Queue: 2 jobs
Job 1
Amino acid sequence: MTSPKLPTLLARIERFPIAGSFTISRGAKTEAVTVVAEISRGGLTGRGECVPYPRYGETPEATLAAIQAMQEAIVSGLDRQALQAAMPPGAARNALDCALIDLEAKQAGLRVWNLLDRPVPGERTTAYTISLGSPEAMAAATAKASRRPLLKIKLGGDGDAERIAAVREAAPESELIVDANEAWTDANLEHNLHACAEVGVTLVEQPLPAGRDQRLARIKRPLAVCADESVHDRNSLAPLRDRYDAVNIKLDKTGGLTEALAMADAAQTLGFEIMVGCMVATSLSMAPAMLLTPQARFVDLDGPLLLARDRDNGLRYDDSLVYPPEATLWG
């Protein structure tokens, strides 16, 4: 029997329906599948949520198993610093890292930004995502969201010039950022970049596939280009400096908030602008990422806005403004 003085680890898969569907160049989905880790000690519980990403070979079941495999290490007192070496970056480590930080903050009686000596996050404008579709369908969806100041437009390759023109017509006042999710090619890269520049898009995210993005260093980029799938942690930053102007930091890629904060500091030193991004997930996934927002030029933490329902005590959203978490949620 486990002593109440020793930490215990519980993990489970949770599913949350998406409002409608969420479509990018790699496909569509109608629910967010998350894995939650809970670490308890002395009557206190820290929580972390992650989203396994098939793009990196992750599944909910394998992620759950990877978290559960850390049971003995957690009981033996594994802390978040040791966790960085004990597990590779990815969704499973993210859930455990955030749970350990949440528990540490509760044990210390501090808000997490005070615990980690980071700036206190304030409210920020988050992007709101428009799913990939026909120009007509995307224009209709954009029109419904045109009051939002920042829109993130999912594109998919051929026909993107028509899509982005239709979106701009439907939202003439919104700032637009674009996410191609690796769907462009060397053949259409410059055409699509110029089509985005012509309608005033501020930033294009991951136009070419990771590992096949060298052409970005050989062209004159007419607007800022942001790495997503090409960048994961601090070690992946320096080789991308000639290809990208910004990097998208997501906790499920970095393997948790601990590495994400270190990565943000390193990215700023190298001269990258920062986007803090997310997967489609609940407020429990967004809450730790709020600590990155003081350093971010772009905030894309709209996951809960895309769900049919969020979890209890979720983040406060006021239209496109997102606020830091209350301690009842995380941190």
Note: DSSP finds eleven helices and 14 strands in the chain.
Job 2
Amino acid sequence: MNTQVTIAGVTLNNPVMTASGTFGSGMEYSDFVDLNRLGAVVTKGVANVPWPGNPTPRVAETYGGMLNAIGLQNPGIDVFAERDIPFLKKYDTKIIVNVCGKTVEDYLEVVERLAAEPVDMLEINVSCPNVKEGAIAFGQKADCLYDITSQIKKKAKQPVIMKLSPNVTDITEMSKAAEAAGADALSMINTITGMKIDIHRRKFALANKTGGLSGPAIKPVAVRMVYQAAHAVKIPIIGMGGIANAEDAIEFLLAGASAVAVGAMNFVNPYATVEVVEGIEAYMERYGIEDVTELIGAVE
């Protein structure tokens, strides 16, 4: 039984990884999760300088999920390269670094800094507010997305995964723009913009007013977008959005994802990622599937 998948020339032991921002760099989870069992660890977003993030409160529970407005708090690339990469190198798992920035130059600085580091892929978070475009996310305009993707591809030494925002009119237009600009893979979806109001205090639940909705509530939207993108582009897709168990993960594979990432569920159940890996193996055994790639896009 073969569970390996290859994305942009990088072979993962299995198609299950962590979603950025829900697993740190794995340190906090390594007491619960054998990181060797994961196809890849996707790190929390890393910027060229430390970011303090948004004011609190910045997390709120919602029906079937959660809202967050963390604001990509991170220690910056220098601390990350010194502390997190050596930690992850101890494990037999691929390292995917999530990169964020406020300007194209910010992203390029991190990408260039990572060129000499022993990491396997870069995941570019284009849901960051683009300061020069009046805080519209880089991933919300096809021409912006094309521009940042092509500039990053010129500098990157590792394969580039563009993490697409679902807060767009047409996900296929964005997928095609990223592919045309040279992206090696796509990951989707990032969180959906939402809001919660405390009716007793008549105040916003988040200091930022809006936040990103994640968790089981967004899964049907995510599966639909992965399916649409898989039919619009030829590059591999990493599917995510509300995966709670192996059944959810298999749905994404059948919709056309080559791999999956578990996000919000890590907060509820720290063992979730490994349970998904084991569940996929059990499913393959049950249905006599020799190779996990047989499942990719196999919905009829």
Note: Residues 116 and 275 are 34 Å apart (CA to CA).
